[in-house]
TrEMBL record:
Binds 1 [4Fe-4S] cluster. Residues 69-380 form the Dihydroxy-acid/6-phosphogluconate dehydratase N-terminal domain. This is Phosphogluconate dehydratase. It comes from Fulvimarina pelagi HTCC2506. It catalyses: 6-phospho-D-gluconate = 2-dehydro-3-deoxy-6-phospho-D-gluconate + H2O. Belongs to the IlvD/Edd family. The lineage of its organism: Bacteria, Pseudomonadati, Pseudomonadota, Alphaproteobacteria, Hyphomicrobiales.
Length: 607
């Protein structure tokens, strides 16, 4: 199936822009792949160290040169609900590998922090940088050169992007991503949000708030709202790095275990030892990247991926830009309504038809490239399915995705979309560049022109709210939140406060060089503004009372000040030493010093 002409044009311009970096990348991974498995070239001492702790059967297999060895990179820890189920996965994977005469070893663990725990806390300032730490940690695990393929166990916000960067850095190795799945549905997300807002207004106490939060986040698995974690799973599937239908199966179920066994055997089937060699660096090409962006828009996904997708693409030598992402949003219909873009959670999305239904609908309009290489060994049409447990209770069968949505209020067809576009736009103007997600913002709130209040710390916003200073039309500018300043934390705890002001009838918006939650909601938020304040960007020239206009229809973000006057202003500078110590922040000083701009992925690795 040929993609829509507009999709082809954007793909072609990405391909042309990327030639100087993509072609050398492909040449490198092809040369590395041609060398074949490296265990045969390790010295006897090297190899003995590599399998010293294995049992007799695995050790015997690893002594030879023809048995595939699978590297497991795991983000397991038992504090994170999304990653706790991974505790069982290595043994499942090892047993599945043995069934096909192969071996599997845990190559390494990577850190996995929870933005839900650190939200509004100092630890959040390590969050974005943890992505690149995860990539580096995974690289350490794979650097032993003992492996013919890898499986990556990760789910949440920075973990999957970090693992994806690592998999593409080792792009000669086949890679399959293995999710743990979402927790079962708890307290509805809109009810949780209501209680949060009541708490912010002082109408309920901490006990009631904690009760609501605990009823929402209540068991093993990913949080059920559609933030960055669940956007990650959608991306890995639509980019061909999952086995089909595996994104949103609940943890600790027979089907989840069967999918994990299947992923193991598939990873072992596509090594250079066989006839289906499928290196990760050839799965993720320009077409796969475009498919990922289209999937993000069609589901109303996380704004964090305006950073992560650029960084992932760069690891494969591909130069994706905010303009590409914005232009793809303009032509991608919104087909899913999952909180905060609706009332449903990801379990409802999956029950309505899920990824298989979504992919089929997008393919039917030519909005996805079907002619891609996937880890499954087929084009993308093979992902237009529903995975089910076979009668043997151990394996997976796949039926075509349902032709009719199980809930048209949650998942709809391309002929009857919730919106004609994905609702994620790039903003430009005399304040620089930024991005905004408007799929959850009502049309009457999408243009805001108001005087600004300047804040240099998110806690200052709370103090001003509590004192009643913000009870009016206002654009809150929260600056010195960029990657160079303090690691670019999410400012999600501002959402209830700004939502209250909007509900009171005020015109309200947020402008920041920081991030918002991956579940950006009903208040318009111009985020990732670059150049950031620490770099002397125009946002640092704003003064209290300046009138700023945020126009999402026109895609502009501008201060209404005479251009000559604004140009002549000196950028405000801030002593950031208070943000450089404690909770490990001192260890990340090199990251803050060398990090790139938001529109380049906010990474620490050279392009």
């Amino acid at each position: 199936m040929t993609a829509d002409r507009r999709i082809e044009e954007i793909t072609d311009r990405i391909r042309e822009r990327s030639k100087a970096t993509r072609e050398p990348y492909v040449a490198r991974i092809q040369a590395k792949g041609a060398e074949g498995p490296k265990r045969s070239t390790l010295t006897c001492g090297n190899l003995a160290h590599g399998f010293a702790a294995c049992g007799p059967t695995d050790k015997e297999r690893l002594m030879g040169d023809v048995t595939a060895n699978l590297g497991i990179i795991t983000a397991y820890n038992d504090m994170l609900s999304a990653h706790q189920p991974f505790e069982r996965f290595p043994e499942i994977i090892r047993e599945a590998a043995r069934e096909v005469g192969a071996t599997a070893q845990v190559a390494g663990g990577v850190p996995a922090m929870c933005d839900g725990v650190t939200q509004g806390q100092a630890g959040m300032e390590l969050s974005l940088f943890s992505r690149d730490v995860i990539a580096m940690a995974a690289a350490v695990g794979l650097s032993h050169d003992m492996f013919d393929a890898a499986v990556f166990l990760g789910v949440c916000d920075k973990i999957v992007p970090g693992l994806a960067i690592a998999s593409l850095t080792f792009g000669h190795l086949p890679a399959i991503f293995v999710p743990a799945g979402p927790m079962t549905s708890g307290l509805p997300n809109d009810e949780k949000s209501r209680i949060r807002q009541l708490y912010a207004e002082g109408k309920v106490g901490r006990d009631e708030l904690l009760k609501a939060e605990s009823a929402s986040y209540h068991g093993p698995g990913t949080c059920t709202f559609y933030g960055t974690a669940n956007s990650n799973q959608m991306l890995m599937e639509i980019m061909g790095l999952h086995t089909p239908g595996s994104s949103f199966i609940n943890p600790n179920t027979p089907l989840r275990d069967a999918l994990t066994r299947e992923a193991t055997k598939r990873a072992l089937a596509i090594t250079a030892l066989g006839n289906e060699y499928t290196p990760a660096g050839m799965v993720v090409d320009e077409r796969a990247v475009v498919n990922g962006v289209v999937g993000l828009h069609a589901t109303g996904g996380s704004t964090n991926h305006t950073l992560h997708l650029i960084a992932i693409a760069r690891a494969a030598g591909i130069k994706l830009t905010w303009s590409d992402i914005s232009d793809l949003s303009d032509i991608t219909p919104l087909l899913a309504r999952v909180y905060p873009n609706g009332l449903a959670d990801v379990n409802h999305f999956h029950a309505a038809g899920g990824m298989g239904f979504l992919i089929r609908e997008l393919l039917s309009r030519g909005l996805l490239h079907d002619d891609v290489k996937t880890a499954w060994g087929t084009g993308l049409d093979a992902y237009s399915i529903e995975a089910k447990l076979a009668e043997d209770g151990q394996s997976v069968v796949r039926d075509p995705a349902p032709k009719i949505s199980g809930d048209p209020k949650v998942l709809t067809t391309a002929d009857n979309p919730f919106s004609s576009n994905g609702g994620l736009k790039m903003l430009t103007g005399n304040l620089g560049k930024g991005v905004i997600k408007i799929s959850a913002v009502k049309p009457e709130h999408r243009t805001v022109e108001a005087p600004v209040r300047i804040f240099n710390d998110q806690n200052e916003v709370k103090a001003a709210f509590d004192s009643g200073e913000l009870d009016r039309d206002v654009i809150c500018v929260v600056r010195f939140q960029g990657p160079k300043s303090n690691g670019m934390p999410e400012l999600h705890k501002l959402t209830p406060l700004l939502g209250i002001l909007q509900d009171r009838g005020h015109k309200v918006a947020l402008v920041t060089d920081g991030r918002m939650s991956g579940a950006s909601g009903k208040v318009p938020a111009a985020i990732h503004v670059t150049p950031e304040a620490k770099a002397g960007g125009p946002i640092a020239k704003l003064k209290e009372g300046d009138v700023v206009k945020l126009d999402t229809e026109a895609g502009t973000l501008s201060v209404q000040v005479d251009s000559a006057e604004f140009e002549a202003r000196e950028a405000f500078t801030m002593d950031l030493s208070a943000y450089e110590h404690g909770i490990g922040r001192e260890l990340f000083a090199p990251f803050r010093a060398m990090v790139g701009a938001a529109d380049e992925g906010a990474g620490v690795f050279a392009a």
